[in-house]
Amino acid sequence: MSNLIDLNQGALSHFGLGVSHLGGEAMKQNYRVSFFKQLVDSTGHPFDVCQGVVEVRAISRRAAVDDAKRIFAELKDVKDWSLRADHEGVELLPAAKRRSRHAQFGRAIRHLPATSLAS
Question: Using one digit for the tens of pLDDT, what is the confidence trace for 90-104?
Fold first, then answer.
C-alpha cells in the first residue's frame, strides 16, 4: 500500500494543494508546540526547561511548527525563535481539547511566564 498518502502530514502542501482545495478549515487540526531550553544541573546532567507553549491550528505538523516558531519569536520579541529556545516538541491535540477562545485568529497562547507578557 505504498500509494497511500497521509493528508495530515503535509502531503497537500507537497503537491501544491492549499487548504481551500479540500474544504478549508475542516482539514486543519490543532497542535500544541512547546519550546525548550536545555540547561545543565550542578552534576552536569542536561535537562529541558519549557520556555513557552503555543497552540496553533494548521493543516500539517510541519505547518504548525513553522507558525508556532513565528508566533513564539513575536511573543519573545526576537527575530529568531532559537534565540530563546533550543528545540521544540509538537503534539496533535485530541478533539476534546480543540477549543480556544482565540480560535478565530488561528492561535492561542498559554503557559508563558508572566514576565514575558508584561514587557
Answer: 999 986 554 544 443
Q: Which three cell numbers stand for residue 48?
A: 529541558
Burial class (CB in 10 A: 0-12, 13-18, 19+), 81: buried
What sign does the dihedral 98-101-107-112 (CA atoms) show?
A: negative
Check if CATH label 3.10.20 holds for domain 22-118. Answer: yes
pTM (2 decimals)?
0.60
Given a contact cutoff of 8 angstroms between Cβ atoms, the answer to whether 41 and 54 are in contact is no
Asked if residue 81 lies in contact with residue 72, where contact means CB atoms within 8 angstroms, the answer is yes
| Nearest residue to 64 (alpha-carbon basis) of 98, 90, 96, 82 | 90
pLDDT at 116: 43
Whole-angstrom distance, CA of residue 47 vs CA of residue 45? 7
Cell 482539514: give the residue: 27
Neighbours of 69 (CB within 10 A): 19
Whole-number Å distance between alpha carbons of 11 and 9: 6
